[in-house]
Amino acid sequence: MKKSAFIVLLLVLSGCDLKPAPENAARSFSSIQRCLDHVAFDTGERLNITNRTPGRVWGETAEHGLSFRCEGRVTELKQLEVEGRWQRQGK
After folding, report:
1. DSSP string covering 9-23, please?
2. Cβ(59)–Cβ(43) under 8 Å?
3. Is 39 left (phi over 0), alpha (psi -120 to 50) or beta?
C-alpha cells in the first residue's frame, strides 16, 4: 500500500498525468467538409485548421490538441474519395 501511494506521489510530483493515450481513428468520406464535420462530431471539439492546400486539410482540436487530417484523392473511376485520420481521447 505504501509503495503504490509512493509511486502515485512521484507521478504527480513529476508532472505526469494519468490520462489515457489518444486513440487513432480513420474513415473514408465523400467530401472534405463531411470529413471535417465528422471529426468535430466524433471528438466533440472545435477544429483549428493549421494548413489547407487543394484537396488536403489538417490541424488539431481546440481543447486537447488532438491531430486530424482530411485528404482527398481521385480514384481510378474518377470519383473523389476523402481519407480522414484523427485522434480522439482515449478511454
Report:
1. HHHHHTT---PPPPE
2. no
3. alpha
Give 64: exposed, middle or buried? Use CB within 10 Å, 0-12, 13-18, 19+.
middle
pLDDT, tens digit (0-9, with 9 covering 90-100), for 29-52: 999 999 999 999 999 999 999 999
Q: Please tell me the distance from the alpha carbon of residue 54 to that of residue 38, in angstroms, as a whole number.
A: 20
Contact 77, 56 (CB under 8 A): no
Q: Domains along the chain?
A: 20-88 (2.20.25)
Q: How far apart are CA 86 and CA 67, in angstroms?
A: 6
C-alpha cell at 33: 467538409
C-alpha span between 32 and 15 (Å, rounded): 38
